[in-house]
Amino acid sequence: MKKIDPVTLEVVSNHLISIVREMATALMRTSYSTIIREMGDYTTALFGAEAELIAQAEHIPSHQGTLSEAAKTIFRTVKMEPEDVVIFNHPYEGGTHHPDIMIFKPVFADGEFVGMAGSLGHHIDVGGRSPGSASTDALDVFEEGLMIPALKIVKAGQVNEDIFDMIRANIRVPHKTLGDIRAQMAAVALGERRLLELFAKYGRQRLSEVVAAVIDNSERLMREDLGAYKDGTYTAEGFMDGDGISDDPVRIVVTVTIDNGSVTVDYTGSSPQVKGPFNCAITSTHAATWCGVRYMVSPLIPQNEGCYRPIKVIAPEGTIVRPTRPAPLSGRFHTLERMTNTIVKAFNQARGENAVGACHSHLSSYAVSGTLADGEDDHFVFFDLNGGGWGGTPVGDGLDATKGLMSNSRDCPIESLEIEYPLRMERYELLTDSAGAGKQRGGVGFYRVLRFLHGDGYFTNRSDGQKFAPEGVLGGNQGTKARHKLIRADGTVIDMSSKVTNMDIHSGDLIHFETVGGGGYGNPADRAPEKVLDDVLDGLVLAEQARDIYRVAVDVEKGVIDDDATAALRAG
């Protein structure tokens, strides 16, 4: 490999990142659904001549590497020509789960294939037995929605409308899904144009050499950071509530072996593949692994194929992390969160005082469907993602009410939700006393109440965290567990498990969400009294908890610390 001067290396690396960011902006600004337009559940990327990842936008961590593996599938199986566009989502052929539709466009320079532009978007509905394609009790992949093998949706510049017609016939809100697909097509067209501009500037041979050096540089930086950890083997385990069919906990076992800048992540001992839709295709398992290890190194390392070279994955076939088809897997995101959190737990053993508390390790996701208004035949589907608290760290409290380790999406703005759907968010607030106490407390969860306003519909709860609370570290307390309930318009209260599919809901019904708080870091009695006071005044901690757990006496009426009482509490 030719030596590349550091200035050119940085300029090209950041130019590639700017391209994928511009692609992402174009996708967001032209999309139709709230899950892409408002919540940002999408990713854009560029690939080289061997389908290697050369740049990926900083959006959803669970998409790390998944587009790369799908690109290799396309590269291997499809004969691509100029002005082709390929659509793909098959979860057993390199995809993730059904709603994640991917679009790829090959890039040709001087008649030679030089790479691809790719985009991935989570679509509001791709069919299946449950609105939002969010079933929690599907028994195989065929119940979960439309599966699309690698097909040319555009061939030599001509759009294949038959594919659009086929998709339209199988989904509930076709104008939004097809609009989002066209937005993805616009994003990859922009990526192609910008990449060709870069080739024109540097020349094909020179740019290929620089890009190879960019990838090598990311590998070098990964190995340097991983080499700072003490070599050894560290094992941790985590649990999910169940698989949607059975209430038996689902076990994730992670054994991390650190060896001179390389890491092996072994899932041997994890639960066999489950009947419900919480299995993970191997691409998703790779994503969870790469993401978990990436959390252990500098976030400034450019995201490309080099980041994955130091990481080896062992995923036994027939387990939840590598099921055999046609096992269902549409709910795999909750398993990914648990896997990544368990990787962090294993690394905690190597991090010592730099360990971190556990986060909520899932998403309280749900889907609501119904009709838009009286007399209208138009149906709606709304899919939402709720976060929770992250774990406390050596340098600060955990993040409050934030998406998990594998997500980076935003909340759907209430104004957008209420304008577009017959729904009303009646409460949305941080959840008092949900954080695990500690010298640095965990992040708090939140409390939301959603009212269904019109007609009849269905509600699906695809969540977790009701049985196993996030653990604290180094003396920190665990966070709270999740709670969900449905209150009928007549006042009837129904406690919901974390996994419910197609529950009937009617006008006036209320859906209550209490999400999980993160685990604390360090002894709560070592927390600075001023921080405890701030938490009490902000409504995050009750005065009783401040006294009993943090050993801080707060005069709520005066808004001050009772220094004498606090000294007595902490002396005892």
Shape assignment: globular
* Major sheet details: 7 strands, antiparallel
- Sheet-strand content, in percent, reads 15-25%
Count all strands and give the number: 22
Distance between the termini: 66 Å
Order of strands in the sheet with the most strands? 2-1-5-4-3-6-7
Share of residues in helices? 25-40%
Contiguous helical run count: 12
- Total count of domains: 3
Q: Briefly note the structural class of the backbone.
A: alpha+beta
Question: Mean of residue pLDDT?
Answer: 95
Radius of gyration: 24 Å
Q: Give the low-confidence spans.
A: none
Structure description:
With 572 residues, the chain is α+β, with helices and mostly antiparallel strands. It folds into three domains: 6-221, no CATH class; 355-525, no CATH class; 528-572, no CATH class. 29% of the residues lie in helices and 23% in strands. It has helices at 6-30, 34-37, 66-77, 161-168, 174-202, 204-226, 282-294, 332-351, 414-420, 529-537, 543-548, 563-571; strands at residues 42-47, 53-56, 85-88, 100-109, 112-122, 151-155, 158-159, 232-240, 250-259, 262-266, 311-314, 364-371, 379-386, 423-430, 446-452, 456-462, 483-487, 493-496, 499-506, 510-514, 554-555, 560-561. A seven-stranded antiparallel beta sheet has the order 2-1-5-4-3-6-7, with helices on both faces. A five-stranded antiparallel beta sheet has the order 14-15-20-17-18. Strands 8-9-10-11 form a four-stranded mixed beta sheet, covered by helices on one side. Helix 1 packs antiparallel against helix 5 (174-202), helix 5 (174-202) crosses helix 6 (204-226) and helix 7 packs parallel to helix 8 (332-351). The longest helix is centred in the first third of the chain and has 29 residues, at 174-202.
